[in-house]
Automatic annotation (TrEMBL):
Protein name as it appears in the record: SGNH hydrolase-type esterase domain-containing protein
Listed InterPro entries: SGNH_hydro (IPR013830), SGNH_hydro_sf (IPR036514)
Pfam families: Lipase_GDSL_2
Organism superkingdom: Bacteria
Record domain SGNH hydrolase-type esterase: where: 478-625
GO molecular function, one term: hydrolase activity, acting on ester bonds
SUPFAM superfamilies: SGNH hydrolase (SSF52266)
Record Gene3D superfamilies: SGNH hydrolase (3.40.50.1110)
Length: 640
């Protein structure tokens, strides 16, 4: 049985405990005398002596600053110097003396992060970032090069400090700025170069993201890589994008919705081409005119523009609703591509688009960087209340489909020649002075486009003064071309059709902005093998492939599912055509509209959308129903 400790034993234990504490925690060179009277060197003293011995063996000399090292020119060649405490962090590291100058060494001591990366990569059993509990506060303070750490507590996920929406840092833990402790939640402005951020590092903290002294944040994506996720320099560009999105309509969600959006774009005509069969032609509707003779060619007779077909109803709707024309206005009769007469009709109106708020205009500086819009008030006889300011060497761009337009601009009072240029698809087509003895508004430059197709127009300010642009004035056209050719199937529209029967290649012009394919009804006869939609799908795939390659600027919509009453005896049904085309739309990235559900509902509700013995061609009520389905789908764009 152990006895009681004597007073001397307690005294000796106390002395030994103190010696042990000093051994573990004492500063370099601090005395540590044990009860035997010996000075026991502590760990820090032993560490420094070991490093000094290693440096001596490697001929490495340490310096507090780079300046102190550069002043030491008496070193043998070669020898190594190490800078450890220079105020400019990037100066710290190893240098080699070559006899005339100290040069940065290709071999550098391992940084905290590089050592940490080795630890992470060597951990075969864990994919998570290792904790940095071994870092001292001083190491966290200096970070790596010019970085400062931002830490998140492992257990609670609490940020020790972070940045708010105004780019201010807010301390939520122990944070020092240049040695001053920040109160929790108090905003500190974006750090500037020279500020030093210090977050105390304890057990469980993780260096998962870094903040630069300029306020940029980099997120750790792997053991050795960081990705920039925030930079205060991004704020102007982000604000410009927000402003642009707030001014612009939402992006259209389908081809028909893009059609409606284009109707509101002053810079672009609408050229809708409907490729189809006898239903698109208008058979079954009233007031169509002669239906023959028919040879399944583009020069077949066309129905009148006043027929009650769904194509004509759509033309009336788009023209009368999206242009300021009389409610009873009639379309201008035009000749469809390949037709002898008729087949196409259009409405038009002179419109003005003010560039200061036009959603289709893109403003950039001389380096091509998007910039926020700046405007200036105009005066009579300007066509817009405000003008868009194009900075020196800056430019505006927009997509345009037109024969031409009047570019409206302001002149500045200046005796020196000030010029701007107009280019179309990268080709210079016009240049104009915008200076005069007195300033003025309402000046017009007539711009004729080289070709009637969708083109990219750029107006560049070649002067070193701002260019005021009011906008554009032009005759906006909404055109619907009915290329419904009676008796045609999907095979009739193949791009490989022989000359004289090239319905697709010759019937869909390069100026087409929107294309609706209403084909497949005549494919159901089943004359081809196999008697299913395989033949139809193969043909339509060739048609779509050609359109995507050769009419890439146009939106394409597949229209299928006429709920005809002639299904008995057919190889397959209208709903099968719709299912097939829905799959094709996904494959080719085009739009699709299925008419079948709503048309079938109307039939089962007792609506008479077919007349008499004609179970194939809708009557006036049937054509009106098809139009309403199309209109309802297109106008979903305007729902909010």
């Amino acid at each position: 049985m152990a006895g009681f400790l004597t007073k001397q034993e307690l005294l000796n234990g106390s002395v030994d405990a103190g010696t042990l504490g000093e051994f573990a925690n004492g500063a370099v060179g601090a005395p540590n005398v044990n009860r035997a009277g010996s000075d026991v060197k502590n760990l820090q003293t032993l560490r420094v002596e070991a490093l000094d011995a290693a440096f001596a063996a490697a001929d490495i000399k340490t310096y507090l600053t780079k300046a102190a090292m550069q002043a030491d020119t008496g070193r043998p060649v070669p020898s190594t110097g190490r800078v450890t405490k220079d105020p400019i962090l990037s100066n710290n590291g190893d240098y080699v003396w070559n006899g005339s100058a100290w040069q940065w060494s290709e071999i550098q001591p391992a940084s905290t992060l590089s050592l940490q990366a080795v630890r992470v990569q060597s951990d075969d059993n864990s994919g998570r970032v290792q904790s940095l509990e071994s870092l001292t506060s001083e190491q966290a303070k200096i970070g790596v090069d010019e970085w400062a750490f931002a830490h998140i507590e492992e257990n609670t996920g609490k940020l020790l400090f972070g940045m708010d929406r105004n780019a201010n840092l807010r301390a939520t833990g122990s944070l020092k700025v240049d040695g001053a402790i920040q109160a929790d939640g108090i905003a500190m402005g974006t750090p500037t170069v020279g500020d030093c951020l210090e977050a105390n590092v304890g057990e469980g903290d993780r260096a998962i993201s870094l903040w630069t002294r300029a306020g940029a944040r980099w997120q750790m994506t792997s053991a050795t890589e960081f990705e920039k996720v925030y930079d205060p320099a991004w704020i102007p560009e982000l604000q410009r994008q927000v402003d642009e999105l707030s001014q612009a309509p939402s992006l259209a969600g389908s081809g028909l919705q893009q059609l409606v959006l284009r109707c509101s774009n002053v810079a672009q005509d609408v050229n809708l081409v409907v490729a189809g069969d006898s239903i698109a032609w208008g058979i079954g509707a009233s007031n169509t005119g002669p239906t023959g003779p028919r040879n399944q060619r583009l020069d077949d007779p066309r129905s009148t523009l006043t027929a009650k077909s769904w194509v004509n109803l759509l033309r009336y709707y788009l023209g009368r609703r999206y242009l300021a024309v009389p409610v009873d206005a009639e379309p201008l009769v035009e000749i469809a591509p390949g037709a002898i007469e008729g087949g196409s009709g259009s409405f038009s109106q002179v419109q003005i688009a003010a560039f200061s708020d036009a959603f289709f205009v893109d403003l950039r500086d001389g380096g091509g960087v998007p910039i926020p819009r700046q405007t200036v008030a105009t005066g009579a006889p300007a066509v817009a209340a405000t003008a868009l300011i194009v900075p020196p060497l800056g430019y505006v761009e927009f997509d345009c489909l037109a024969v031409g337009f009047d570019l409206m601009y302001g002149k500045v009072a200046d005796s020196t020649s000030r010029m701007f240029t107009v280019s179309v698809d990268g080709v210079l087509i016009a240049q104009q002075e915008f200076n005069d003895t007195v300033a003025s508004w309402g000046n017009a430059l007539a711009v004729a486009l080289p070709a009637y197709r969708l083109s990219r127009v750029r107006i560049s300010n070649a002067a070193n003064v701002a260019l005021p642009l009011e906008g554009m004035r032009r005759n906006k056209v909404i055109r619907v071309v009915n290329q419904g050719i009676s008796g045609t199937s999907s095979a009739s529209w193949l791009p490989s059709a022989p000359s004289g029967r090239r319905l697709l290649v010759d019937g869909v012009p390069v100026s087409a902005t929107d294309i609706v394919l209403a084909l497949g009804t005549n494919d159901r006869i089943g004359s081809a093998t196999p008697a299913n939609t395989t033949w139809h799908q193969n043909n339509m795939a060739q048609v779509l492939g050609w359109l995507v390659a050769n009419r890439s600027s146009a939106s394409v919509t597949l229209l299928a599912g006429y709920a005809t009453l002639d299904e008995e005896g057919m190889a397959y049904q209208q709903r099968d055509i719709a299912r097939c085309q829905q799959n094709l739309a996904r494959m080719f990235g085009v739009s699709f509209l299925n008419l079948y559900p709503q048309m079938r509902d109307a039939i089962e509700d007792g609506q008479q959308i077919f007349s008499g013995s004609d179970l194939l061609h809708p009557n006036d009520a049937g054509h009106a129903l098809v139009f309403r389905i199309i209109k309802q789908h297109a106008e979903l764009f305007n729902a909010r």
